[in-house]
């Protein structure tokens, strides 16, 4: 399988987070990357420069859309973690880059509740990093669409991702 670097930057171009996944394939929903448990994540914030993923996951980079999704295997309490981002761009032959826009949506496995996180960070960075109106509009539209899709258990967030998650760890 081909290794693909997934790079998240902040709006000012500074590095935020990076993980290398294995390209599983593409379908009508976008590009699917595997990040098996123990994959190295480089953080460029806080007090932890690197960490290891705690559960097998697949990451969906949509063909179009202001988000990306991480679909997590058990025993993680979350089954879905979505970052609101600018649309993804292939920035190299094996590199995808997005601008992280702070807001995240999480769906919890046990009760299916969906929570929106870091709206305060979005509001702060909207001013301090100078998000243009079109960036704000794209992010807020993504939040509304993701909340609806996750709450209503719409594809690819219902069962479709499981086919890809079942491939994590296979050679």
From TrEMBL:
Keywords: Hydrolase. Residues 12-154 form the DUF402 domain. GO terms for molecular function: hydrolase activity. It holds the Pfam family DUF402. InterPro entries: DUF402, FomD-like_sf, Ntdp-like. PANTHER family: PTHR39159, UPF0374 PROTEIN YGAC. This is DUF402 domain-containing protein. It comes from Paractinoplanes tereljensis.
